[in-house]
Amino acid sequence: MAEGEYPKTGTSGDAEPFRLDSVLEEADQSLCRSLLAQAMGLHEKGDLGGAERLYRAIVGKGYRVTDLLPITANMAWQAGRHGDAMADWNALLALSPKHPVALLESGRALAHLGRPEEAEARLRAAAAALPESPAPTADLAMLLFDRGRHGEAHALCLDAARRWPEAPVFAHLARRCVSAKVPFWHVPMVNDTARNEAFDTAIRAAVAAHGQDAVVLDIGAGSGLLSLMAARGGAGTVVACEGEPMVAAAAREVLAANPLGKRVRLVEKLSQQMAVGTDLPVPADILVSEIISSDLLTEGILPTFEDAHARLLKPGATILPRAVAAVGCLVGGEDLARQSLVGSACGFDLSAYQKLSAPRLIVDGLAWQALSPVVTLLSLDLTHPHHPRPWPRWNSAPRRTGRRWASCNGCGSI
Ligand SMILES: C[S@@+](CC[C@H](N)C(=O)[O-])C[C@H]1O[C@@H](n2cnc3c(N)ncnc32)[C@H](O)[C@@H]1O
């Protein structure tokens, strides 16, 4: 394309070049000024189709092109002619590659059109072109969030919240990123006094038994609480690892807020990515870890502990907790029935809706009655370096007591 020319816009496949304002004859300019006044008049009256046709005619003559292309692009977009809108933005960017509005609006449009890679590139360019504005960064963070890149979106939002403290969108989106990756139970867990005290007692005893040279490895630092306990117990070396970056960032702040935190080394990795010699000075004497889900296994305790035994611990290291068990019983009662059974409502038979009831319920907080004795469903000795597959799933079955018959409608966990 020759200098002073740009591609035609708002239609597809037409590569006919047009002149720029600077090369317009005075007569053309005066015609264009008059057309522009008419277009603006139509626009004001709400005749969008007529106005857009005139704006495009003026653009076609090469007059006030960079001013008018954003208008035609927006009008085409509003009318649902997304291809025309994108052609206008692209034409504008061909003329002015760093045009901030074209970068931002076309980035938004590409995101809307389901073209996320191109959208991301445009929004990043818009952020660079508009360093004082939070808008491109907000759109970019939302795009990353929608694509499941929560860690990146979170880091971007934290940085943006510092730069633009007056823009609440970043704090809000940062919290959405956290809740997408960090389960709700992190907070109630650290407020579970019985749990905390049991760990504290066990950690103190283990460190006392090993002496002050004890090397403690805390897998899954969370807040860093168990590591702080180990440091308070007198362990010479405490290394904590945390695999979720958003949790690790919070742990770093917690450690900084507590004087004993200086004695804890936080490694922002999964334990499976750690190595002795780099992340741990020597194999650890004590492993402390609370990666125990309500059903015991789904936080990966067995493969994680097996890997730690094989690579990160001294033979015969102290393991806290050394054993875990899941217990259960048959439960029932009015509250649970309301959560899982459907009969009639307001005189209508809704029983077919029963098919949609959840096969699994969190029963914590609900009133329930035990319908059988408590039995051990699964127990594991975590001091064993290996747990042969298949893992034990069910050690004994709950027994029915009395003469009550009912249907079993799923399972739950506390
Ligand atoms: C249940 S929380 C426990 C937090 C803390 N240790 C406590 O007891 O308060 C488990 C944490 O371990 C992390 N985690 C799970 N498996 C991990 C692994 N293999 N390596 C590092 N972190 C892990 C999770 O991201 C989560 O933050």
TrEMBL record:
Q: Does the keyword Transferase apply?
A: yes
Domain of life of the source = Bacteria
A GO biological-process term? methylation
Pfam families linked to this entry: PrmA, TPR_19
Keywords from the UniProt entry: Methyltransferase, Transferase
Which GO molecular function terms does the record list?
Answer: histone methyltransferase activity; protein-arginine N-methyltransferase activity
Q: Does the keyword Methyltransferase apply?
A: yes
Q: Which SUPFAM superfamilies match?
A: S-adenosyl-L-methionine-dependent methyltransferases, TPR-like
Gene3D superfamilies (UniProt xref): Tetratricopeptide repeat domain, Vaccinia Virus protein VP39
PANTHER family linked: PROTEIN ARGININE N-METHYLTRANSFERASE, PROTEIN ARGININE N-METHYLTRANSFERASE 7
Q: What is this protein called?
A: RNA methyltransferase
Q: Which organism is it from?
A: Aerophototrophica crusticola
